[in-house]
């Protein structure tokens, strides 16, 4: 690559991988084995719609099968291509290893603009795409388990799950063939918002470490921090909502397809989302300045920048003008390898995608386990937990009354303490624990090695180490 050429998404992932692997001592050849994508299946299929046969192109890429099933979302976007899907599949391998979700990496994509099709048409297209993948075991509970990504959600996952079930009527684990399903189709509480929730937990963990904040020149807590978010879709919306409503952060900017909104006092995330749903974009939203050149807002002063839309939005061209001292990559690949170099040299701290947006695959992992165990989390323990807590509370009350101590429990304590954890609470607890542990593993490398300057390289070192260990255990 020439110094001035902007690396593509896939080149960026490879360059970042190479940078990390140069600091490792892997057996000869293993590095190449881990880096390359195992296989990509391209399918072109026809669906009769609107009086003619429409042809669609889709991909399912399997990057690494060091663990099976392989896991990765299915994206619906007009510009989907093989290189993009392979880059995303590679990131899935590293992401799963980093957060210890026992999967290899995969990804899928369909070249389609979902906004151009009616719901019943999308169902036909999705079912046909799923059929093509299912018959080749590219969707399978034990081999390849998709999830939502850009342009897809619960609805598409339910169609895929049902399609698999129709083709495998006797498979008792059929619901585990895909995650991100609605609750009534075998989904799990907390999956829809999981990636945004993970971004929130990642930032909370970052702000627990004064040394890490200092690296970005930040102090204090999330309270009052100015945040600019790009993309108010599934990931961006939930991240912005939780950070503003629960952590006191101010969402000063929102960048969408049709421009950007800016309000230094903070935007109401719910209201903006409602506006987008009703009007199809952010234009004319009251209570904010609207600019048509959305990307320019990425360069506006703020404390935290959250690119949560698509890849390659921070490039060698605009990186020198980015003012945020902290970037958290909620989207996959938003910072190109060239931009990463520029930002690193300027001291910008980047919380990398493979960690920052791993909340989605983490809760997908919980959903898959739920589907295989055929029981909701907490169903066996919840009431038993409540009964034991009740024993303690009653004993305290008895002691206080018998001895005339006059102890009084704080208001609300009893209800909170007595309540056993339901599925949503367990999912959040598991996600929080995962995000904290993965951050710890990255920061130990970041601060513990003189040759590691940034969190991204640290993340690659941790995850490549784990993938390499799996391959070695298999005798490779
Ligand atoms: P989504 O389709 O729900 O939302 C994407 C949003 O970005 C939409 O609001 C869209 O209007 C906006 N957008 C598109 N192009 C834009 C542009 N040029 N400028 C500004 N905004 C633009 O998708 P999502 O599921 O939220 O995924 C977003 C990113 O997060 C992707 O990179 C995806 O791979 C990644 N991701 C998603 C999940 C998940 O669970 N959904 C998990 C991990 C990573």
β-sheet strand percentage? 5-15%
For the record, the CATH class of the domain at 40-185 is Alpha Beta
- What is the CATH H-level superfamily of the domain at 40-185? Leucine Dehydrogenase, chain A, domain 1
Question: Tally of extended strands?
Answer: 13
* Uncertain regions spanning at least 5 consecutive residues: none
What does this 3D model show about the protein?
With 476 residues, this protein is α/β, with parallel strands linked by helices. Among the domains are: 40-185, Rossmann fold, CATH 3.40.50; 217-347, NAD(P)-binding Rossmann-like Domain (Rossmann fold, 3-Layer(aba) Sandwich). The chain is built from 16 helices and 13 strands. It has a seven-stranded mixed β-sheet with strand order 10-9-8-7-11-12-13, sandwiched between helices. Strands 1, 2, 3, 4, 5 and 6 form a six-stranded mixed β-sheet that branches. The two termini are 31 Å apart. The mean pLDDT is 96.
Give a concise summary:
By secondary structure, the chain is an alpha/beta fold.
Summarize the helices and strands and which ones pair or pack.
Elements: H1 9-21, H2 30-35, E1 39-49, E2 52-64, E3 70-71, E4 74-77, H3 82-98, E5 104-111, H4 119-134, E6 144-145, H5 154-167, H6 194-206, H7 210-215, E7 226-230, H8 234-247, E8 250-256, E9 259-262, H9 269-279, E10 289-291, E11 304-307, E12 326-328, H10 337-345, E13 349-351, H11 353-356, H12 359-373, H13 382-402, H14 413-418, H15 423-448, H16 455-473
Parallel strand pairs: 3-5, 3-6, 4-5, 7-8, 7-11, 11-12, 12-13
Antiparallel strand pairs: 1-2, 2-5, 8-9, 9-10
Helix pairs in contact: 1-3, 1-16, 3-16, 4-5, 6-8, 6-12, 6-15, 12-15, 15-16
């Amino acid at each position: 690559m020439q110094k001035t050429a902007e690396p593509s998404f896939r080149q960026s992932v490879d360059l970042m991988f190479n940078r990390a692997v140069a600091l490792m001592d892997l057996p000869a050849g293993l590095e190449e084995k881990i880096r390359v994508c195992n296989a990509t299946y391209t399918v072109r299929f026809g669906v009769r719609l609107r009086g003619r046969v429409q042809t669609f192109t889709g991909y399912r890429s399997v990057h690494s099968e060091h663990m099976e099933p392989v896991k990765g979302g299915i994206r619906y976007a007009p510009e989907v291509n093989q290189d993009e899907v392979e880059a995303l599949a590679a990131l899935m391998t590293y992401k799963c290893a980093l957060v210890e979700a026992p999967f290899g990496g995969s990804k899928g994509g369909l070249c389609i603009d979902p906004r151009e099709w009616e719901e019943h048409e999308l169902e036909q297209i999705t079912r046909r795409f799923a059929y093509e993948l299912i018959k080749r075991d590219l969707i399978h509970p034990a081999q390849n388990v998709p999830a939502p990504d850009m342009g897809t959600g619960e609805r598409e996952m339910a169609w895929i799950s049902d399609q698999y079930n129709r083709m495998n009527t006797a498979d008792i684990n059929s619901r585990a063939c895909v995650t991100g399903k609605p609750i009534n189709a075998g989904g799990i509480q907390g999956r829809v918002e999981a990636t945004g929730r993970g971004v929130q937990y990642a930032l909370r963990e970052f702000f627990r470490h004064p040394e890490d904040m200092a690296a970005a020149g930040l102090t204090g807590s999330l309270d009052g921090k100015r945040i600019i978010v790009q993309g108010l879709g599934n990931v961006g919306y939930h991240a912005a909502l939780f950070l503003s409503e629960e952590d006191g952060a101010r969402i000063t900017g929102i960048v969408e397809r049709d421009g950007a909104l800016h309000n230094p006092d903070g935007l109401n995330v719910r209201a903006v989302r409602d506006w987008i749903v009703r009007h199809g974009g952010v234009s004319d939203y009251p209570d904010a300045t609207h600019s048509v050149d959305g990307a320019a807002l990425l360069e506006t002063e703020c404390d935290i920048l959250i690119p949560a839309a698509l890849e390659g939005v921070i490039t060698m061209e605009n990186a020198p003008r980015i003012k945020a001292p902290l970037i958290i990559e909620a989207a996959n690949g938003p910072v190109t390898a060239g931009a990463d170099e520029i930002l690193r040299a300027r001291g910008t701290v980047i919380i990398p995608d493979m960690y920052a947006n791993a909340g989605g695959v983490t809760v997908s992992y919980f959903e898959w386990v739920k589907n295989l165990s055929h029981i909701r989390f907490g169903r066996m323990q919840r009431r038993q937990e409540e009964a034991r807590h009740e024993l303690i509370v009653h004993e305290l009350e008895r002691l206080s009354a018998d001895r005339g101590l006059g102890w009084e429990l704080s208001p609300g304590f009893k209800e909170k303490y007595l309540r056993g954890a339901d599925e949503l609470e367990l999912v959040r607890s598991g996600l929080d624990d995962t995000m904290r542990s993965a951050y710890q593993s990255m920061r130990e490398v970041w601060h513990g090695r003189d040759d590691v300057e940034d969190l991204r390289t640290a993340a690659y070192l941790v995850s490549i180490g784990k993938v390499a260990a799996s391959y070695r255990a298999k005798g490779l």
